[in-house]
Amino acid sequence: MNLPMKATIVEVGPRDGFQSIKEFIPTPLKLQIIEKLIEANFKKIEITSFVSPKAIPQMKDAKEVVAHLLENYSDKKDIFHALVPNLYGAKAAYEAGLREITYVISTSVSHNQANVRRSREESFDELKEIKDIFPEMKVKFAVATVFGCPYEGDIKIEEVKWMIQNGLDIGVDEFCLADTIGVANPLQIERVLSELKADFSDIDFSLHLHDTRGMGLANVLSALQLGITKFESATGGLGGCPFAPGAAGNIASEDLINMLENMGVKTGIDLDKVLSVIPIIKKEIKPVLTSHLAYVDTTCVVKE
Amino acid sequence: MNLPMKATIVEVGPRDGFQSIKEFIPTPLKLQIIEKLIEANFKKIEITSFVSPKAIPQMKDAKEVVAHLLENYSDKKDIFHALVPNLYGAKAAYEAGLREITYVISTSVSHNQANVRRSREESFDELKEIKDIFPEMKVKFAVATVFGCPYEGDIKIEEVKWMIQNGLDIGVDEFCLADTIGVANPLQIERVLSELKADFSDIDFSLHLHDTRGMGLANVLSALQLGITKFESATGGLGGCPFAPGAAGNIASEDLINMLENMGVKTGIDLDKVLSVIPIIKKEIKPVLTSHLAYVDTTCVVKE
């Protein structure tokens, strides 16, 4: 098995995880968790999203979250980024002081309509505007529903290529392919990524995988063998898309880090510090965690 | 990715799953679940274990379970087998009418002592006696703690080879390598299995994996690529070893079947019928299920 020497983990729990929690998580608790994730040495954390507070009330404190973190971690500003669904969100993120955003467009026409209430073309037009208005804003283009859509089912690879080409034309900085509802299987990961890498050999794709059907880490294994080295995950396995029925948690950061490190793929992240977040999440947020390590009886973990 | 055309799934939920449930599951409920698993077309089901009812009270109805199934499925007798830890158990299984057993010995000296209260050599002596007394009894040799032990940590490959050679010398019919506490990683699966297949090229190893740390299906993927085509799993992801602290559920049969079928690896099993067992388990047994599909909102599964 041909595995890379190291991998980069992007923690998206504070955005994708928290947005799946109905009850509002108090801002100080959000910050407490994010600070522990910074301590654990994640180099990239998606800390919030600038979305309509009517659509996702959980994210109504985006501005405060960003302000606090930029003030207290002024030397680590490039760790932080936020998801935005449109120009309005990008402006808010910029004004809050962020210089990096995740901009999401769904490959599926109907999911894009449900998620951000506009056509894909409208989404691309706004992305172009964002790039024009804020040329220094780094944009990670999240290509959603690449591997399946809750409304349309299978997604044609040509549609994904069209999405990527549009992103290239606009000049986005990064491409993240998302299995929004956790339906991808390892063979599909291989098939889709092989074809995309052949057509777009200059792009270092990252993956955003959900573990809805338990295939998350198997999909990571498949992707690693193709040279993919950047993965998004959420501590505790929190997650789900509010506008993707049936979506469940992201792959859990701790499960992912544990697998990678055990295979000798270095992440640079302190697993124990990540695990120290779990009791806080369990006690204060009380979600159903899809993480496995979150439930391992650590009093009897195998001796090294 | 080089995957086999088909795979065999051995359902061990009625043994490994049920033994992890403290409250006694009434015999008719056990039989109801097993009958649904037969309907789902599993060709091999570990239906119970013949162990001391003091050690594992859940299995005290082993005789009744076997009697009912042999009577009602006289044309499908070869589906059924039971786990036994010693000669006493093998005798009881034989008397109950079974002609196939799983005999478990741990690679780890201390886990074998904790699990079956004897040395590995004593376990092999009893296995030899079983083969002598019941030559027509098919024996699947479950080599436990191959990939790690809760007491001893890492397991040396030489120890595993010693176990297998002993099994060969005694003339067992099948070898099943067990990750009893769910610590194996995909690279380790590749390393261990490559070495064992090189030394024992005539053996078709099967795998019994636990999903304690979420690597279950990734490990399956790794094994598939090495030509392994037989896996044990438990519907609902029930499971755990009463004498292996920290062990958690088996890989869930439904998650495994779903991944395999989605990759074009045929299992011959009716996934919907397997899933029909889940509400019964949830309602009547109320365990924490580590299965993923058990929690997928099937009202919004992706359209085909």
In words, what does this structure look like?
Two copies of one chain form a homodimer. Chain A has about 300 residues and is an alpha/beta fold. The first copy, chain A, has a single domain, classed as TIM Barrel, CATH 3.20.20. The first copy, chain A, has twelve helices and eight strands. Chain A has helices at about 15, 25-40, 60-70, 85-95, 110-115, 120-135, 155-170, 185-200, 215-225, 255-260, 270-275, 280-285; strands at about 10, 45-50, 80-85, 100-105, 140-145, 175-180, 205-210, 230-235. In chain A, strands 1-2-3-4-5-6-7-8 form an eight-stranded parallel β-barrel, surrounded by eight helices. In chain A, helix 4 links the parallel strand 3 (about 80-85) and strand 4. At the A-B interface, helix 8, helix 9 and helix 10 of A face helix 8, helix 9 and helix 10 of B.
Reported by name, the CATH topology of chain A is TIM Barrel
- Summarize the amount of helix of chain A as a percent range: 25-40%
Give the chain pair forming the largest contact, with residue counts. A-B, 52 and 52 residues
Quantity of strands of chain A, as a count: 8
What is the CATH level 1 assignment of chain A?
Alpha Beta
Weakly predicted, low-confidence segments of chain A: 298-304
Strand percentage of chain A lies at: 5-15%
Question: How far apart are the first and last residues' alpha carbons of chain A, in Å?
Answer: 24 Å
State the strand order across the main sheet of chain A: 1-2-3-4-5-6-7-8
Would you list the SSEs of chain A in sequence order as H and E? EHHEHEHEHHEHEHEHEHHH
- In DSSP terms (H or I, runs of 4 or more residues), the helix count of chain A works out at 12
Largest sheet of chain A: 8 strands, parallel, barrel
Task: Assign the CATH superfamily of chain A.
Answer: Aldolase class I
The CATH architecture of chain A can be given as: Alpha-Beta Barrel
